[in-house]
C-alpha cells in the first residue's frame, strides 16, 4: 500500500479537524434565509428607503424598554452576531435601533444591559435623541426574540447531541 506524502497527510488532517470543529458550533437561534438583509442598523438609518420591508436578524444590548398602549418599544445598541447569532459586545457598535413588539412586554424580561437577538422586518426610521444628540433609529417590527442568559453566553458547547440521530437542543 502506498503512503501519502507527509504534507498532504497534514493538510487532510487539518481540513478534517476544521470541518469537525465547524460541525460542533452551536446552531443559530433563527433560521437565516436569502431574504434577510445582512446590514447593520447604522446602514439602514442612512438609507431607510432601500431596506423598508426587508427581514433582518439583529442583536445587541438592551438600553431601555417603553410600554405603549398597544405595543412595547425596546431601544437596543446593535452589535455584530457570531455564527450562533449571539451578540458580540466587544466588537464595534453597529448603531442603535428600536425593536417594536406587539402588546405589553414585561420590562424585567428585557432588563437594561441584557443581550438579545431578534428577527423581524424594517418598518422605516424615527428621529429621536441619544442624550442631547439627534439620532435616527431604524424601526424593526419583531417576529421573534431571544434574551441570552449568562450560561448561554459563556457556553461554547455545541447545541448538538448524538444518539440514534442528530438533534438540535434549544
From TrEMBL:
Q: Tell me which UniProt keywords the record has, alphabetically.
A: Signal
* Pfam families, alphabetized: Slp
Domain of life here? Bacteria
Q: Name one GO cellular component term.
A: outer membrane
The record, for InterPro entries, names: OMP_Slp (IPR004658)
Q: Which NCBIfam families match?
A: slp
From the Swiss-Prot or TrEMBL record, give the protein name: Starvation-inducible protein
Native organism is Metallibacterium scheffleri
Source species taxonomy: Bacteria, Pseudomonadati, Pseudomonadota, Gammaproteobacteria, Lysobacterales
Amino acid at each position: 500500500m502506498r503512503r501519502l506524502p507527509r504534507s498532504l497527510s497534514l493538510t487532510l488532517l487539518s481540513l478534517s479537524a476544521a470541518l469537525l470543529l465547524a460541525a460542533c458550533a452551536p446552531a443559530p437561534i433563527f433560521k437565516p434565509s436569502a431574504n434577510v438583509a445582512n446590514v447593520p442598523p447604522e446602514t439602514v438609518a442612512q438609507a431607510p428607503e432601500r431596506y423598508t420591508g426587508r427581514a433582518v436578524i439583529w442583536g445587541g444590548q438592551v438600553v431601555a424598554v417603553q410600554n405603549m398602549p398597544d405595543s412595547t418599544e425596546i431601544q437596543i445598541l446593535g452589535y455584530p452576531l457570531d455564527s450562533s447569532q449571539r451578540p458580540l459586545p466587544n466588537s464595534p457598535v453597529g448603531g442603535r435601533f428600536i425593536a417594536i413588539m406587539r402588546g405589553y412586554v414585561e420590562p424585567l424580561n428585557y432588563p437594561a444591559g441584557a443581550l438579545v437577538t431578534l428577527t423581524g422586518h424594517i418598518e422605516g426610521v424615527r428621529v429621536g435623541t441619544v442624550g442631547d444628540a439627534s439620532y435616527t433609529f431604524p424601526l424593526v417590527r419583531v417576529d421573534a426574540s431571544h434574551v441570552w442568559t449568562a450560561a448561554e453566553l459563556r457556553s461554547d458547547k455545541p447545541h448538538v447531541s448524538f444518539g440514534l440521530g442528530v438533534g438540535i437542543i434549544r
